[in-house]
Design brief:
Layout (H helix, E strand, L loop, with lengths): L24 E6 L4 E6 L3 E3 L4 H14 L5 H4 E6 L10 E8 L8 H12 L4 E11 L2 E14 L2 E14 L2 E8 L5 H7 L1 E2 L4
Antiparallel strand pairs: 1-2, 2-10, 3-4, 4-5, 5-9, 6-7, 7-8, 8-9
């Protein structure tokens, strides 16, 4: 299992939100991609903006059965310290530029996402559109079927997509953790300077 990554102070800073963190949670702020999120202090956090973080992320994504394409856009990844049935529940935040940043592009992005996941062992069991942090958003529950470390696993997953700051933000929760609801409540968008 990878050890927690220490990230440079210029990359990770205290969140600037007015709400306090849940007890025992640690904040991660990405000033470049304009988001902040917090996870329990005991979770392994990876900051992929460093070379060491890229290597650790590659190892963790391989161990979790994630698609290779996730490496390029993953800006934050964290996993539980303890595996359940050989699998660590995890959260990933990916960020991709959306030229023009129009929220009206969300239906087309969702359609592409749904088509792209069909060959990846993802079965979407329910989905809905709405808002998240005041922006158009899409939420889906799913199951993911993958081979991890030579074993076939089926895990629950949640996807949250929203467009803001000329970016598509995707929060993916894989596995099962009682902390997922709290983690998503800590996700915030930062204002561009």
């Amino acid at each position: 299992s990878a050890s927690p990554t220490t990230v440079p102070p210029a990359t990770v800073a205290p969140t600037t939100t007015t709400t306090s963190l849940p007890p025992g949670f640690v904040a991660f702020t990405d000033a470049t991609d304009l988001f902040a999120v917090a996870v329990p202090g005991g979770w392994t956090q990876v900051n992929p903006s460093t070379a060491t973080g890229q290597q650790q992320l590659q190892q963790l994504l391989n161990a979790s059965g994630a698609a290779e394409s996730a490496l390029a856009t993953t800006k934050f990844f964290a996993e539980t310290p303890t595996a359940v049935n050989g699998y660590h529940a995890n959260v990933a935040v990916t960020v991709e530029a959306v030229p023009g940043g129009s929220e009206s592009l969300l239906p087309d992005i969702v359609s592409g996402f749904e088509q792209g996941t069909k060959g990846e062992g993802v079965t979407i069991t329910s989905s809905s559109t709405g808002t998240m942090l005041g922006h158009a958003a899409w939420h889906a529950n799913a199951t993911i079927s993958a081979v991890v470390k030579g074993r076939h696993i089926v895990e629950a997953a949640e996807f949250h997509l929203l467009i803001a700051n000329n970016n598509l933000y995707s929060l993916t929760f894989t596995g099962t953790s009682p902390d997922f609801a709290t983690i998503i409540s800590t996700f915030t968008l930062l204002s561009p300077n």
